[in-house]
Prior knowledge:
This protein is mainly α. It has a domain at 108-279. It is 67% helix and 1% strand. It contains eleven helices and two strands; from the N terminus they run αββαααααααααα. The chain has helices at 31-38, 52-69, 71-100, 110-118, 123-134, 140-156, 160-183, 206-223, 228-251, 257-291, 295-304; strands at residues 41-42, 45-46. It has a two-stranded antiparallel ribbon with strand order 1-2. Helix 2 (52-69) packs across helix 10 (257-291), helix 3 runs antiparallel to helix 10 (257-291) and helix 8 packs parallel to helix 10. The longest helix has 35 residues, at 257-291. Mean pLDDT is 84; it is low at 1-28 and 293-305.
Amino acid sequence: MRPTxxxxxxxxxxxxxxxxxxxxxxAQQEGVAGERQQDVRLGDVDLTAWSGPLGEAxxxxxxxxxxxxGAYSALAVALAVGVAVISAAAAIVIVIYAAVTTSQGVxxxxxxxxxxxxxxxxxxVDTLLTAVTATxxxxxxxxxxxxxxVVLGVRRRSWTxxxxxxxxxxxxxxxxxxxxxxxxxxxPPYSDAVPPFELSESFPSGHTLNAxxxxxxxxxxxxxxxxxxxxxxxxxxxxxxVLLIGFTRVYLGHHWLTDVLAxxxxxxxxxxxxxxxxxxxxxxxxxxxxxxxxxxxHTREQHES
Length: 305
């Protein structure tokens, strides 16, 4: 009789059971094997470790759902829950925003800041920032998202990056459309804006919201398989890009400051939920590994022995 080795729980496995980063041979792993080996850690953080009673319940549900319907079903459920949560959060933000913008509150910063920036404009800077802001627009951001989906999906031979980026972009666009429909806030006057003029409503800043969510999830996926210095570079570049996009929206007179702030908040909240859904998926994948090979494999091994 062969001795049976015990397996540690998902939440309690230490670094000794999992590599801290991709080594030369591991860096080429693709598909599910690559996800299990290289995506479960972000630096020193174990993405499959959940603390506290709620965390333990989350890990247990991921394990159960994975064994019954597969890891991608767990991802779908987690993303669906994320959509429900961000929808409720967006409704709250819209109500609060409507109340704030009808008083002096935070909106009292909108006009003074735009007046300040009007005095700093120049033809060269206007042209440069118009080109920058276009990268997060209706053409630029979809191109970034599609390119990332194709490159990451093909190189990693996995549908996970495709699903995460596509859902992130689709929901962020829906949040933008919904906010504009319900608030219907007027943009700064055309006399204060740099052409080409925007025709849709002002709240929230769709450029900012989409930049936070889409570039954020792309940066997160890239950082998973990089060393510490590369992770810092990726995160820094993503944050600077998002802040620059937000600045261009106000500088060019296409949005009020509070529209940009709302886009930042909603985008960051949605990004956090997508990353949490991915952690749930990784936990489900780890549960598959913990369960070992299918029963028929065990039976075949027993016959061979």
